[in-house]
Design goal:
Elements: H1 8-12, H2 19-27, H3 43-52, E1 53-54, E2 59-62, E3 65-67, H4 71-78, H5 95-103, E4 112-113, E5 116-118, H6 119-125, H7 135-154, E6 161-163
Antiparallel strand pairs: 1-2, 2-3, 4-5, 5-6
Helix pairs in contact: 2-7
């Protein structure tokens, strides 16, 4: 399995990613995701799982019963911590204000659809950290790379955009 193409910059250039940004990504508990450059998977198994997925119950239907993917499964597979403070939450604020506050940039209207931002914008906007970057700018770049990694590596359609619309 290859990460979605929008993660390609941060994954292909992890070695030139500014160390200050890498330290923050590690501090937030996402540093290990930078090592997911290439993941092999079995196409037959994936196809079988897709065929056995039941959208009505959000479970896999197997001959011996039903099962689902739990938060603990995600923790074990991806190494994401599930204990501690919540990383994100629902926000009903304006997307432009959200981006300005947490990322220091406002995405152009061509990269925004409804309340979602294309991950390619993150990829293009946050490649290079300015040499004279303040702690706030470093944190903004780290947040952008984390959002790109999550959206790209998990590959779920829900995570391919940053969405601020309340559930």
């Amino acid at each position: 399995m290859r990460p979605r193409r929008h993660a390609s910059w941060v994954l292909k250039h992890e070695d030139i990613l500014d160390q200050r940004v890498k330290r923050l990504i590690d501090h937030y508990g996402f540093g290990h995701l930078l090592k997911f450059k290439h993941i092999d998977f079995n196409h037959v198994v994936i196809t079988t799982l897709v065929e056995r997925w039941r959208t009505e119950t959000h479970t896999f239907h197997f001959p011996l019963g039903e099962t689902t993917v739990t938060l603990e499964d995600v923790e074990l597979i991806l190494g994401l911590l599930i204990d501690g403070q919540v990383v994100t939450g629902i926000t009903s604020g304006d997307l432009v204000s959200f981006c300005d506050q947490f990322l220091g940039f406002i995405p152009p209207s061509t990269t925004v659809k409804e309340n979602a931002i294309k991950l390619s914008w993150f990829n293009n906007t946050f490649q290079e950290l300015p040499h004279n970057a303040t702690d706030d700018v470093i944190a903004q770049h780290a947040r952008a790379h984390i959002l790109t990694l999550i959206g790209s590596l998990l590959g779920a359609h829900i995570l391919t955009h940053i969405n601020t619309k309340p559930a």
